[in-house]
Amino acid sequence: MKSSSWKSTLPLLAGLAALGVWSLPAEAQTPKKGGILKFVVPDEPPSSDGHRETTFALAHPWAPFYSLLIRIDPEDKAAQAIVCDLCTEMPKPTDGGKTYTFKIRPGVKFHDGSALTAKDVHASFQRIVFPQQGVSSARKAQFSMVESISAPDDQTVVFKLKHPSGAFLPAVANPFNWIYAKAILDKDQHWFEKNVMGSGPFIFETHQAGALVKGKRNPDYHFAGKPYLDGFEAIFAKTQTLRVQAIRGDQAAAEFRGFPPKSRDDLVAALGKDVTVQESDWNCVLLVTPNSKKKPFDDVRVRRALTLAVDRWGGSKDLSKIAIVKAVGGVVFPGHPLAAKKEELEKLAGYWPDINRSRAEAKKLLKEAGVPDLKFTLSNRGVDQPYTIVGTWLIDQWKQVGVTVEQKVEATGPFYASLNAGNFDVTTDFNCQAVVNPLSDTSKFLPTDGAQYGKFEDPELIKLYEAMNKTGDEAEQKKLMRAYEKRVLDDQAYNHITLWWYRIIPHRTYMKGWNITPSHYLNQDLSVVWIDK
Amino acid sequence: MLRYVIKRLLLMIPTLLGAALLVFLLMRLIPGDVCVLRLATGGGSMDATVIKNCRIELGLDQPYLVQFLVFLKGLATFDFGNSMWTGRPIVGEIGLRFQLSLQVAIMATLTAILIAIPLGTISAVKQNTWIDYVVRAFSIAGVAVPSFWLGILIILGILIISKAWFGTPWMPPIKYVPLWQDPWYNLSMLIWPALATGYRYSAVATRMTRSAMLEVLREDYVRTARAKGVFRKLIVRRHALRNALLPVITIIGIEFAFLMGGLVVTEQVFNLNGLGKLFVESISNHDYNMTQALVMLVVAIFALTNLVVDIIYAWLDPRIRYA
Predict the structure, then answer these.
(1) What's the rounded Cα separation, in Å, for the pair B284 and A412?
(2) Which residues of A touch B270 (CB under 8 A)?
(3) Most exposed of A409, B1, B51, B91 (fewest Cβ within 10 Å)?
């Protein structure tokens, strides 16, 4: 019996290892009830509307107030398993994969005591997928496959798709797709930008702008016995040093975005067994994007030379000691079944195992393009981790092939203003996503994506992406993904992947039940977190 | 005096108008857009329609002249509208931080006065003795050491000492509770930034007190008092210090006004949700409405503080009369 249960967990363990999710083994303890969890949040969001915002700074303090239709299993460390939150069971698609029918849990209540029905779920997704004029929906583009949403009765929500899509369920499970009350939305579509009323594990108490958000336990939460905590306090603290010291001085139990290795080491040295460290590969990547509209970066030879000059395999070893980056990967989150294997990556420009050969090719290409002594400015965002650190490393990499680069570091506002106006030679950029869903995550590399700054046009690339999203065949998807990746990173070198981020969460050991995931947006409703004091 | 005060208050109007025009123009010279920033910083796709709608919603599609007139109307009615970043009323957002900033400014000022005036006076009276040298070294160190660095040292020191003495590291609270709700908690949070900023503040004031005292102690009327056999303590306290305080009051006034909005880094170090932090955030978020309101508040604080300093002059020195 023991042997068979061990064998049955092997694939799961292998999956976790493949996804790079590492942490200390969870202790088999019975959760204790009570206590207030205090944690620090590095930033504060512009509004409290999950449908509008895209920042973790909203997810960490506000997610505990809301429920989702479906969600990533909070106890699945790989953050892959999608389970019901408000639905009764995961739907099986019908109509050739084009219809999804969700049954809504009966008896769920909003925090004001009103009943949550399918009408509320319908109104919320209608706002996300088909927002009214003047309503911002940050994830509308992820639902391009949805044709219509309906709620034929109080317990049923039906999504009809234009075509079958593997990206649909992960898009629905996005942790920002909070379910709002239809009655409120009918009166004011903007109400949730400044107010809170959900059906999640915690009831909103207060938000002191610039200071903190407080929540208390929802006694009517639809998962019996949860949450375990009496409440939580999310304290905004902008400086990293202060957040580290807050954990050290026990003013906070954790920070859920991620610290660099040095901060982890400092905390471990200061607190010993009172601190637990969880680490994971991160579904975030730092990119380099040449401005394809500007000379000489309109020449593919120059773009390829720039990626060929970068030693990712060596950089991973060195940079992972000082920055929040680690894994070498292509366009897909490393370890995912759709990601390139090492031998596949090694065939792409910039990933060759022999860096000397790669750099010799880079020099040759620059000479052929007529710019052997290329000089340009790298636009970079004024954020240390990992932007300026990786930016400085890149300058050294390019220097190896005779390219002289000046780094222009700007505050976030002017940085994005330059990118949008196309006033840059080469820039850094990032792609951070919630649910690991390469079919949707890789849309960032499309010329049509609102956050693609490469300023190129490529109908062939769009065709590849659409074909990849329409096919249900996994082998075909993989093949198309490899072709898409090769076109983006090698053949055209529109964007260059530097290194994937690495998430390090040192937290007070008394905080239990929280599992790290590859995304800092996920698993933040705190329903399974408890305090062991 | 009343006429003088009214005249000074009226003179504040052109000052405020000039500042309003300046801040309005300067904010629009900084590249960047609050709407783009909202979407970009989260890494999401940016839909051009969403950005356009956002700009319409915030009134950024209006001509500059219209935007300026709206700002002036808000200034006249003390209603600056809503923050472009959070959408919440600006008056409320500022009010929330004002009491914390005011308390820190008052505590730092008291710290500075309690240190600077006795030390500056002793240093002048004991000129060129070891006491004078110690005080001068102490005050030069205060000018040289940035208060944020001192703040970091204070936090680290508390963490290390508390661990050594009690076995577990302790650090000052990082969330604000008003003084009347929990005085102990409030003071255990704010005493440290008040000390860090008060020290630098006191260093400037100590040096000013010392030099002003040295000058006054050489005046004829002090020599006359001495010749008349007045006790030395009385001469220092009643005749010299009172006159020497005039430039010191000016420095204290300017520093107080500065502390209300300028404690940017110290606020970050101690996680104080004050006006300085709000200032920096509103500029980096391109929140024109908030930045404009804050600049106007700081200008008003400076103008009012100067007025108060001038009134204190008259109280300290009966020779000064305003008409």
Answers:
(1) 8
(2) 242
(3) B1
CA angle B297, A207, A193 (to 5 degrees): 90
Nearest-Cα residue of chain A relative to residue B156: A245
Inspect the interface and report whether the beta carbons of A239 and B87 lie closer than 8 Å: no
**Contact of A18 with A333, CB cutoff 8 Å:** no
- In the chain, the amino acid numbered A117 is T
**Please, which residues have CB within 8 angstroms of residue A413's CB and are 6 or more apart in sequence?**
B30, B31, B32, B33, B37, B284, B285, B286
Could you tell me which of A265, A272, A263 has the C-alpha nearest to residue A245? A263
Question: Do B170 and A47 lie within an 8 Å CB cutoff?
Answer: no
Give the CA radius of gyration of chain B: 24
CB atoms within 10 A of CB B92: 11
Residue type, B107: M
Instruction: Answer yes or no: do B32 and A431 touch at CB < 8 A.
Output: no
**Contact indicator for B101, B276 with CB cutoff of 8 Å:** yes
B229 touches chain A (CB under 8 A): no
Contact A122, A174 (CB under 8 A): no
Among all chains, which residue has been given the structure tokens 């306290």?
B237
CA distance linking residue B251 with residue B208, whole number of Å:
8
Q: No. of H helices and E strands in chain A?
A: 16, 18
State ipTM.
0.80
- Chain B residues 167-226 with CB within 8 Å of chain A: 168-176
Q: From the CA of B253, how many Å to the nearest CA of chain A? A: 28
Please list every residue in chain A whose beta carbon sits closer than 8 Å to the beta carbon of residue B174: 40, 235, 237, 242, 246, 251-252
Q: How far apart are CA A132 and CA B297, in angstroms?
A: 38
Per-residue pLDDT for chain A (533 aa), expressed as one digit of tens each?
A: 333 333 333 343 344 444 444 444 445 679 999 999 999 999 888 889 999 888 888 999 999 999 999 999 987 777 788 999 999 999 999 998 899 999 999 999 999 999 999 999 999 999 999 998 878 788 887 898 999 999 999 999 999 999 888 889 999 999 999 999 999 999 999 899 889 999 999 999 999 888 999 999 999 999 999 999 999 999 999 888 899 999 999 999 999 999 999 999 999 999 999 999 999 999 999 999 999 999 999 999 999 999 999 999 999 999 999 999 999 999 999 999 999 999 999 999 999 999 999 999 999 999 999 999 999 999 998 888 899 999 999 999 999 999 999 999 987 767 877 887 888 999 999 898 888 889 888 988 998 877 788 989 999 999 999 899 888 788 999 999 999 999 999 999 999 999 999 999 999 999 999 999 999 999 899 999 999 98
- Euclidean distance between CA atoms B161 and B168, whole angstroms: 9
- Amino acid identity for residue B192 in this structure: W
Q: Are A151 and A157 in contact (CB under 8 A)?
A: yes
Torsion sign, CA atoms A103, A105, A111, A113: positive
Residue B248 tokens, joined: 């010191």
Cα–Cα distances in Å, from A416 out to A353, A442, B39, B254? 34, 21, 10, 37
Residue A117 makes CB contacts below 8 A (sequence gap 6+) with: A104, A151, A154, A155
Query: Are the CB atoms for A449 and A425 separated by under 8 Å?
Result: no
Residue B42 φ/ψ region, left for φ over 0, alpha for ψ in the -120 to 50 degree band, beta for the rest: alpha
This model's pTM is above 0.90: no
